[in-house]
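Input.
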Amino acid sequence: MFAKHARNELLKLFARRRTYIGFGVFLAVEAIILALLNMDVVLAAFGTLLANNGLQISDCYTGLTLATFINFFTVTMLFGLYLALVAGDMVAKEVEDGTMRMVLSRPVARLGLLAAKAIACATYTLALGAFIGATTLLAACLYMRGVGNLMVFGPTQRVFAVFGPSEGLWRYALSVALMCVSYQLVSAIALMLSCFKIRPAAATVVTVTVLSVDLALRNIPFFQPLDHYFLGYHLGCWIRAFRSTLLWPEIVQSLILLAGATLTCWVIGATQFCTRDFKA
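Output.
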């Protein structure tokens, strides 16, 4: 019965048009960024950055470098937004449409139903994350007609490294995998809020607000010593896959904290969902 619920939730999720908004937006953003990177003034700035670090643009201006560059500046702002948009609808939208009362009028376990919705959210997070990683790399490599070396420069993330093609590819794959796992928390937050008595748009807005406030606080220079206490630091553990020396204890610690926060959101959401009166 649970497998049937999970399958139905996945079918409902991927039958909605808004589920695919994130996929389309990321494709458009990738195309725009690659087009802008072809401008002479942008190429000159990129070449100056490389020259100041003793590197040649012919060695580091590659498909792998551009793919990582695009992810650095799009995932943080957009990935969480579209996860919140989809997960925030999972319960609140059905309550608003009145279908939740019809579903619960049957002999269905509330906890099992919410667990199926959580699986659907987790699946969507993995699907969108994998799509972003694959299409960005494919588009950048087609644009540059090859993979090439990987040069990573992220001043705010304190990352600067150069890797060969083989190491660069597995570092890129590792970062995408970590991104898909870490951002499960964003889906869990939106799903938890969706279980409360609020509209779908409100669940999305509150989730995005949490991420935005966290980002704003992290950008205040005086709060740098507190960086480890912010949500964005741990969500960004995928960026640490590009450090010259992989510090696995830091990455694992972030993943454990994110897993604990995700579980907490699921428990709070399940408690609210199982005790809520949907007739009111």
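Strands lie at 150-154, 159-163.
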